[in-house]
Design brief:
The chain is 63% helix and 12% strand. The chain has 114 residues and is of the alpha+beta class. It has a single domain, classed as Orthogonal Bundle (Arc Repressor Mutant, subunit A). The chain has a three-stranded antiparallel sheet. β2 and β3 form a beta hairpin. The longest helix is centred in the last third of the chain and has 31 residues.
Length: 114
Amino acid sequence: MPDERWPAEWMRAVLPLSVLSVVAAEETYGYLIARRLDEAGLGTVKGGTLYPILGRLEDDGLVSSSWREGEGGPGRKYFAVTPAGRAALADRSERWAAFAAATHGLLTTRKADA
């Protein structure tokens, strides 16, 4: 699981959408996806967490993968978003924003009432 910066249950909820977003931005491979997530502030995401998410996204038809030879090193599995993945990303991003706004409103109201 990712580092302790964020509670594990939050990360389980947001990682699939975040991974899909990274892959939609650029056709890329696992290590670079993990780096992009870390750079975005989500912390370190290990392969044991990342690759099952990528596998589920591929099983769901939201990403595709292909092997490419490495330059002076081993080959890499690259991931690309599919048209269905782009549509899912747009829908889920919109729904996530509404969910985040609702929870923020609830937490802010509760805090103000205290």
